[in-house]
């Protein structure tokens, strides 16, 4: 996904431009720190204390110049309008968040308002059109059968959450003034890997295969996750 995001940034902004980035639901700060290392000014929003602590610990290990480019705001992603003015950011990330929001329309609209004209909105969501893949590939036929006609599922943390369909999100992005420009699949072949599985010896090849599949039909349509990129008009 990082490669996909870098491709979108490189295609939409001048080389070397220091971007204002908002990472909503930043988690432990993986993407925020990566983008700060690339020279961008990053603001991360997170509400979970354990994630905030992890992000602060990771940030503390970075050189001073990178630490100065990252700001962490403790808060809910649905309250961006409380913390920031409209149009304050060139790039807004919201990765792995929508599945925990029962009604995401207000969150999406708020994220779009944060974008400057021409700004990039990057979403990572669970693919509702492929919910039967994981149980089916695992031989859970009853689970696969029940997954065809729902957008709800139980994740690996044991939480009941929701997924999004590509067509519905495409319409939603058009409605908030940040129409879909590109989309990718994420975890096409690796979704059934065990959480504690170590990195394979041929990790570089694995990533190349996943990246190729994530941009190629029909593979990307059955990915576990979808990476959608909208642009503010």
From TrEMBL:
Per UniProt, the keywords (alphabetical) are: Methyltransferase, S-adenosyl-L-methionine, Transferase
**Signal sequence annotation:** none
GO terms for biological process? methylation
- InterPro entries registered for this protein in UniProt: Methyltransf_11 (IPR013216), SAM-dependent_MTases_sf (IPR029063)
Q: Which CDD domains match?
A: AdoMet_MTases
> In Gene Ontology terms, what is one molecular function of this protein?
methyltransferase activity
Tell me which residues make up the Methyltransferase type domain: 22-122
Protein name, please? Answer: Class I SAM-dependent methyltransferase
Q: What is the lineage of its organism?
A: Bacteria, Bacillati, Actinomycetota, Actinomycetes, Kitasatosporales
């Amino acid at each position: 996904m990082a490669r996909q995001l870098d491709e979108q940034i490189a295609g939409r902004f001048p080389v070397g431009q220091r971007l204002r980035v908002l990472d909503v639901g930043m988690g432990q700060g993986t993407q925020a720190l990566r983008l700060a290392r690339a020279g961008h000014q990053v603001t991360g929003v997170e509400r979970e204390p354990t994630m905030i602590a992890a992000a602060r610990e990771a940030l503390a290990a970075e050189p001073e110049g990178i630490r100065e480019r990252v700001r962490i705001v403790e808060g809910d992603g649905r309250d961006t309008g409380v913390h920031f003015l409209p149009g304050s950011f060139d790039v807004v990330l919201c990765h792995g968040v929508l599945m925990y929001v029962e009604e995401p329309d207000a969150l999406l609209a708020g994220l779009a308002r944060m974008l400057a004209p021409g700004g990039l909105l990057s979403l990572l969501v669970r693919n509702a059109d492929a919910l039967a893949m994981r149980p089916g590939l695992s031989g859970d036929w009853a689970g696969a059968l029940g997954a065809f006609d729902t957008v709800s599922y139980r994740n690996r943390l044991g939480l009941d959450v929701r997924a999004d369909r590509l067509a519905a999100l495409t319409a939603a992005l058009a409605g908030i003034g940040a129409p879909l420009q590109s989309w990718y699949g994420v975890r096409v072949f690796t979704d059934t890997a065990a959480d504690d599985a170590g990195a394979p010896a041929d990790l570089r090849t694995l990533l190349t295969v996943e990246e190729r599949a994530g941009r190629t039909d029909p593979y990307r349509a059955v990915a576990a996750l979808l990476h959608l990129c909208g642009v503010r008009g």
